Amino acid sequence: MGRTRSLLGLGISALALTASAPASAQADTLRHYQLPAQELGASIRSVALAAGQTLIAPTELLRGRRAPPVDGTYTPDEAVARLLAGTDLRVAHVGNALVIRRQAAESATDAQGAGTGADDEILVTGTRIRGRAPAGAAVTTIDRRAIEQSGYVTTQQVLQAVPQNFGGGATEISYTTTRNGADANSAFGTGINLRGLGPSSTLVLLNGERPPMAGFAGVFTDLSMVPISVVERIEVLPDGSSALYGSDAVAGVVNIVPRLDFKGLEARGSLGFADGFKQIQASAIGGVKWRGGRAVLGYEYYDRGALAASRRPYFSEDLRRFGLGDFRSAPGAVPGVTVGVRSFVVPAGQNGTALTPADFAAGTAEKGDAWAGGDALPAQRRHAVFGAVTLELGERLTLQGQGLYGARHFDGKSRAVFNASTVTVPVSNAFYVDPIGTHQPLRVSYSFLKELGPEGIRGNTDAVGTTASLHWSPGRWDLGVHATYGRQVEDIQIYNVINTARLATALADSNRATALNVLGNGTANNPATLNSLRGYYYTGGTYAMWSTALRADGPLVKLPAGDARLALGVEHRRERYIDAASPYDRTTLTPIVQPGAPIGDRLVTAGYAELALPLSRSGSSLGRLDVSAAVRGEHYSDFGDTVNPKIGATWEPLVGVRLRGTFGTSFRAPSFSNTRQGPDVTSYFAFPLTDPASPTGTTNAVILSGNKPGIGPERATSWTAGIDFRAGATNGLTAQLTWFDVDYRDRITNPGTALTSFLINRAIYAPIITANADPAALAAYFASPFYANYFGIPASQVSTIIDARTQNLARQRERGLDFDIGYRFALAGGKAELGASGSYIVDLSQRLTPSSPSVSLVGTLGYPPDLRVRGRAVYNVHETGLSVFANYIDGYANNSTGTVQHVGSWLTIDAQLSQRLELGPLGKLSVALSISNLFDADPPLTVARSAFTTIGIDLENANPAGRIVSLQLTKQW
To answer: Where are the beta strands (DSSP E) in 617-674?
Structure first.
C-alpha cells in the first residue's frame, strides 16, 4: 500500500469522511449517483465523497482516462465498476477500502466470470494459487449480503438451501432413517450432502483448513457449530477436488470464510416464532486494525425450543386421516393379553386390582402411536466464539492465527415405542389373572407412556478448531507453514429407558404394595416401583485431528499472456477417534460402565502440485485462455496409496462469454466406523420382510449386519463442461450452465438402510439375497453368539439370507445440469434482480454389484429429486430492501412399499423486508422482518417407513418446521 499514491488526496479526505462510521457499514449502502461524462478521476472522487468510502488508486492508472455517464442507484463498488466498464481496470476490496487496479490475466473471478474484487492474497476455493480463479471450475459464492437477505439464522440453513445439496444424511430432522449415514448422527448435528453422494463425500473447510469431524467415528462436518454471524462468505465448488484437497472431496468442497477483515463493532439479535417453538439468536463481533496487524472476535448464542410431534399431524404412525393407512406398532392405552395362541382385551377404565377371568373379552388390543409424546425436532442451544489475529512481523513475514469454539446442547423426546412394549407377567405377580385358567405366564402389551413418558435423548457437543500459520513473502512468492488442531467431543445420554432387569423383578413381585401391575390403566402402581424402572445409557466419543503443512505459491515464469504460476505443498495429518466410556443402566440390576476404547488411528502424508498457465489474454485474436493442472499423492497408514490428477480450462472468446471444463479423479477413505470388526458392530437377526412374491405377503429372512472385512477406499472420475455469460458489469443478463458427470466406484454401502425394501425391490438387491438358503447355514447363524432374537422367529420359519453388511458394493453414475440465470436492472430509483439457480439430475443409476443390473435411482425415495430450484427477486432502494425466494423440490416416487406412490412437489416462499433507520447520534440501526415458508406450506405426504417407525413425510426432502417469522435488529458502530 505504501507504493500506492492516493488520488488527489482522496485517501486522506475519504478517511475523514468515514470517521463517523466504519467503511464496512458504507460498502453495502445504496445511493443514487448522477455523474456526467468526465475525467475518470473526477467521477471516482465524486463516488468516494458521496459514499464516505475510502477509495485509493495509483494516479498513473487514471491519467488521461474518461468515464461514461452514470445515473442510477448503486453500492460504491457497483458505481465504480460502471465507471471502469470497458477498461482494463478493476475495483478490489482490500480491508475496508476500495482499490483500483489493473485487470491481470490471472486475477480471481467469480462464478459469473467477473472480478470478485478479491485482493491478490485471497485464495479462492478450487485452487491453491492466490489471486486467481480455478480454471474451468464454477465456484458459487454466497456472500455476506446474500446471507443476510436470506433471513436464515444458522449456517446449516443457508447451505441446505443450495440446490446441489440433498437433505439425506446427517441432519437434525433425519434421525428417523439410517440412510446416507444418518445413523451415525446421534447428537443431532447437520452436515452437507452435495449431489446426494453422501455427507462423507463432501469436504468442508473453515478458511481453507479441515475442521474437526462429528458423528460416530467422525463421518461428517457439523455445520451447526459454525456461527453465521462470523461468516463473510461461503464458497461452494460442486466438483471432485481430491487433486487439491485429498479425501472426501468427491462431490465437491464447501469453504466457509470468516469475517477476518471486519472493523468496528456489530451487535445483532433475532427472535423467531413458529407454530410449536421459538428461536432466539444474539451475537456480537468486533474488529480492530492497526499499522502492522488486525484482530477480530465474535460470539454467538442460539436457542431453539423443541417441536412436539403432536403439533404436526403427519408425525404419526396413524396416517388414516390422510388416506395413507395405519402403521401403528406400539401397545395402546388399553393392555392386551395373549395366553398361548388366544388373545384378549383388558377392560378399559379400571386399575387392574380387582380383575376376574370373566372380565376379559376375546379380541386383539388396539395399537398405539409410537410418536405419542415424542418430538419432531429436538431443542438446540449453542454458544460459539471465533477469534482471529494477523501480525506483520516485518515487510515480508506475517503471523496468522484463528480459533473457533462451539458448545451445543440438545434435548429431545424420542419415540415412545421403546417405552411401550410386550412384557411377560409370571404367575407370581401379585395382580396375575389368567382369563382361561392355564396358569401359564401372560404376554401383555403395555404402554408405560402414561406413567413414565417417552424415552429422551440429550447431550452436549463441544468442538474446537485452531490454525496458526507463518507466511514469508520473498518477492512475489508466498511460503507458509501451517499447523492445525481440531477436536469434537460428543456426550450423549438416552434417558428414561426401561431397565429390563428391574422390570422383570417388579413383574415377579408377589407383594401388592410393590409389584408392577400391567393389567389396568396404570393408576394403581407404586411411584417408587415405577421410578425404579427408569434406566439410561450413554454413548459418544472424541474425534481429534492434528495436521501440519508447508505450502508455497507464486509466479514461475513470465509468458506473453501473463505469469505462469505454481503451487506446491506437503501435508501430514493424524486422525483419531476414541469411543467414550459408556455408563449403562438398562439390562442389569445395578449400573455398569463399559470402558471406552480407541476406534481408529490414522496417519496421512500427502504432497501436491498445481500449475496455472495463461495461454492468451483478453483482446487477442484467440481471446483469453487459462489452463491448470494439479496432482496429489497421499499415503494412508491403514489402506495404502492413492494419486489423483485434475485438469481445467477456461476460454473467453468474447468479452462476457466463457467456456470452461474440468476432468479429474477423486477418492474417499473408509471411515473408522467402516473398518471396525467384532461384537460391537456384528449382528445377525431374523426379520419379517414385506414380499410381494410371497403368498402371505411376508418372508422371514436372516439379516447379516456389520462390516464386511477388507473395506477399501471409494474412487470417482468426474468431469464438467460449462458456459458463463455476463451482459454487463452491474446490470443486464447473467447466465451460468454446467454439465456434470460423476462415475463413483467401490461405494461403501450399508444395504441395511433399505431393510424394508429388500424383497419389494428384489431386482436391485438380488446379488445380496440368498433365497431357499441351506438349512445348515441358517442353523449356524441362529447358533452364532452374534445372533439376536428380536422378533422371536424360529429357524424353521426362515428361508432367506440377506448379506446387508457394509461393504464396497455399489457403482453409481450421476449426470446432470447446474444452472444460474439472473437479470439485474434499475427500477424506480433502486436496483432489482430476478433470477433462479438450480440443479437438474438427468440420470442417477446404480449397480449394486458388477453383476447386478443398472437401476435408475433419480427421483426415488432416499435419493435426490431430479429438479431442485431456488428462485430470487431482490429490490433495494435507498435504505429499504425487499427479497423474495422461491424454493422448489420436484415430485418423485416412493418405492419403499409394495405399491409405488407418487410424492408431490413442494414449493415454499421465503421473504424479507429490511430497513435502515437513522437514529441521530446513535447512528444507524438495521431492522429486518423475515418469514421462512411464508404460506406455511405443508410438506407433501407419503408413507415414509424405516425399520423402526413410520411417519407421513419424507424428512430427507422436507422440513417439519413450518412457517417461521423472525425479527432481527442489527447495530453497527
So the answer is: 624-636, 640-654, 657-668
**Do both 894 and 791 map to the same domain?**
no
Task: Verify that 923 and 967 share a domain, yes or no.
Answer: yes
Q: Is residue 614 within 8 Å of 561, Cβ to Cβ?
A: yes
Give just the sign of the alpha carbon dihedral 723, 727, 729, 731: negative
* Alpha-carbon span 953 to 895, nearest angstrom: 14
Q: Most confidently modeled of 4-8, 169-173, 916-920, 939-943?
A: 939-943
Question: Quick one: pLDDT at residue 402?
Answer: 96
- Residue at a domain's end among 103, 126, 152: 103
**In 103-192, which residue ranges form alpha helices assigned H by DSSP?**
144-150, 155-160
Q: Rounded distance, CA 726 to CA 728, Å? A: 6
637 and 765 share one domain: no
Element (H, E) at 664: strand 657-668
- Residues 239/126, Cβ–Cβ less than 8 Å: yes
Q: Are residues 722 and 598 in the same domain?
A: yes
pLDDT at 178: 67
pLDDT digits (tens, 9 = 90+) for 557-597: 999 988 999 999 999 999 999 999 899 998 899 999 988 88
**Structural domain contains residue 141:** no
Q: Supply φ then ψ for residue 754, to 5 degrees.
A: -110, 35
Closest CA to 135 of 525, 530, 699, 613: 613
Instruction: Specify the pTM.
Output: 0.85
Boundaries of domain holding 82: 1-103
pLDDT at 84 over 50: yes
Q: Locate cell 456480537: which residue? A: 284
For residues 462 and 404, state if they share a domain.
yes
Domain annotation covers residue 504: no
DSSP 756-796: GGTTTTHHHHGGGEESS--HHHHHHHHHSTTB--SS---GG
**What integer is the mean pLDDT of 376-395?**
95
pLDDT mean over 530-550: 95
Burial of 742 (0-12, 13-18, 19+ CB in 10 A): buried
- C-alpha–C-alpha distance, residues 429 and 293, integer Å: 77
Tens of pLDDT, residues 741-798: 999 999 888 787 777 788 888 877 888 899 988 899 999 989 888 888 777 788 888 9
Tally of domains within the chain: 3
**Looking at the structure, do residues 814 and 768 belong to the same domain, yes or no?**
no
Spatial separation of the C-alpha atoms in residues 571 and 247, rounded to whole Å: 13
Whether 238 maps to a domain, the answer reads no
**Bridge pairing between strands 55-56 and 97-102:** parallel
Q: What is the CATH number of the domain that holds 958?
A: 2.40.170.20
